[in-house]
Amino acid sequence: MTALQPTLNAAFSAGIPQAKSDTAPAIPVKTWIAIIGATLGAFMAVLNIQIVNASLADIQGAIGAGIDDGGWISTSYLVAEIVVIPLSGWLAQVFSIRKYLLTNAVLFLLLSVACAFAQDLPQMIVLRAVQGFTGGVLIPMAFTLIITLLPKAKQPVGLALFALSATFAPAIGPTIGGYLTENWGWEYIFYVNLVPGAVMVGMLYYALEAKPMNLSLLREGDWAGIVTMAIGLSALQTVLEEGNKDDWFGSPFIVKLSVIAAVALTAFIAIELTTKKPLLNLRLLARRNFGFGVLANFLLGIALYGSVFILPVYLSRIQGYNAEQIGMVLAWTGLPQLLLIPLVPRLMQRFDARIIIGIGFALFAASNFMNIYMTNDYATDQLFWPNIVRALGQALVLAPLSAVATSGIEAENAGSASGLFNMTRNLGGAVGIALLQTLLTKREQYHSNVLMQSVSLLEQATRTRIEMLTQYFVNHGIVDHAEATHRAVVAIGRIVQKQAFILAFSDTFYLLGAALVVALIAALLLKKPNTLAGDGAH
Question: Of 144, 242, 328, 470, which is least surrounded by CB within 10 A?
Fold first, then answer.
């Protein structure tokens, strides 16, 4: 976490585009402090997704949770987070940005400590759900402050800081989580929030302007939209998180939740398009840059969270890595972004933002295609360059994509734009992980069937291999020849299954690469905005 501060300093000193003094007034120091405090909060909120996932097995063992039920430790956080993100713009108007942001920031820290003291699974699920609700506030509010407090010329700097939360935090989460779990214990993945969290609260308390609450907005609230959205997103997120484990539509629970999600979200869209004061202005999606920007952002979420999910699973299942070893491999996706992201605003000053977005998506896609020919020996060394290329791509994408997508968004629509933009990226992550889990299962079965056709007792090579393994087991203490033969057959079956899994993992990276190619196409359809970095527009 301490590595974050030099990056933040560099972002608004040496590495930012300087607007002309006659076109853009100096930005107050308090504004920068508010922006940095808010983005630090967003960083911690996103970090808490991956840092907990890296330590999930240890947490499950400590509180006596089974593997299946323990998944709700992550699911409860994600469900609450995705529901509150689109709500935050309206709630900030009701309670004032300062009160709303500070209250949730303090609660987030208190709940982090409470999670470390959870005694059983129900306690942990409830605490993580409430923590997700408070943490989810920090993400869109940081984005909203950037596009409302900063002039257009300086927004790329703020969006580069925000990119640290959106792309760097997921990449570095397993590294931090793995190290803390292996060396200090799983409780410290929650304690790690306290010091940067205290800094965040202090910065926000000092820098945010106090304004009166507007509780009268509660009477005018789009309550039908709020209820249908909350029910629909909760059901959809749960379906995506739990679907593969429960055999999707073979489970009555998943079928019922899918119907609820479809009905509620359809009703939500209809309500938002017809009510006079909607919770979210969905008509923003009809604007070319915002619509294609949101689509590209959704696909970015699939690849961003999908790759952070699939790599640890591969390294654990195939290579036998522990949490700390996995974190060290993924560090090469996270750490280079600390150096690259602060340079993005300067690149946006010199080049068309759409070119930077396109190069970023192309590099990110290439990093996944580099992993489609995996073998049994594919481990740390082989993943080094794909992870470096992935870091380059991720660092280049988010800040310019956010800037182009939100260019021309009016102040009154900033809350809706922030809610939609950030919700779709998180939703893309949930969809991506669900797709990858299912694809991994189905493709492993497919490759196993194909490989087993070649591993037949009718083949001389198979019989020879069984005889060699049988002799190996006999030489190592198995007296019964039949038992040794049985073990030989089982060993061959495991080898085949492992190879099938390796081929299936290769297929998952192909899917991620394909999603990013579609995102690249969406980015190519963006038009050059009238106002962006360096023009001094407000």
Answer: 328
